[in-house]
Amino acid sequence: MTKTTSGASGQSPDAPGSDQSLLIVDDDAPFLRRLARAMESRGFVVDQAASVAEGIAKVKADAPSYAVVDLRLGDGSGLDVIEAIREKRSDTRIVVLTGYGNIATAVTAVKLGALDYLSKPADADDIFLALTQKPGEKAEVPENPMSADRVRWEHIQRVYESCDRNVSETARRLNMHRRTLQRILAKRAPR
């Protein structure tokens, strides 16, 4: 996709005249389009990539000032895109997104230079705040954080999807009885 600019920009990510280029790398096409539109409305000049290979190619052509990178992409890890950005430009402000959050990956992303690590589904406001926070600023605690039951349910759903919706394999990976898993999958998501 090509770079697009915002017609009527709302909030400006930085001081006027500064480089507001933003690369968003995510293989979820609807999410990618929504986030790109939301970031354009906040004053960024957005470029999009749907794979690790495409992201790295765009970074090599023109490293952005800001980047939002999904950690798990169809053709590999978003950490490769972060490394490519750091090779070209050390001042890029990077936020990592993932639906597969764990401590080890968060630590790796931060060591590679990510500013923040947000779990999907993250909204545009959270991403904007993470990209534009000043050094040393702490993110606010969410007003309505997910309940423990919801976090558990989301994790089970992610493992289930990564096992291509195979209940037996999911139960084995989660060290859970198959019937218990089937009951959980049959229920609606907790709030």
From TrEMBL:
Location of 4-aspartylphosphate modifications: D70
Keyword Transcription regulation: yes
Record-annotated Response regulatory domain positions: 21-135
Annotated InterPro entries: ActR_PrrA_rreg, Bact_response_regulator, CheY-like_superfamily, HTH_Fis, Sig_transdc_resp-reg_receiver
Protein keywords: DNA-binding, Phosphoprotein, Transcription, Transcription regulation, Two-component regulatory system
Record CDD domains: REC_RegA-like
Keyword Transcription assigned: yes
Bias-annotated ranges (Polar residues): 1-12
Pfam families: HTH_8, Response_reg
Residue span of region Disordered: 1-21
Record protein name field: ActR/PrrA/RegA family redox response regulator transcription factor
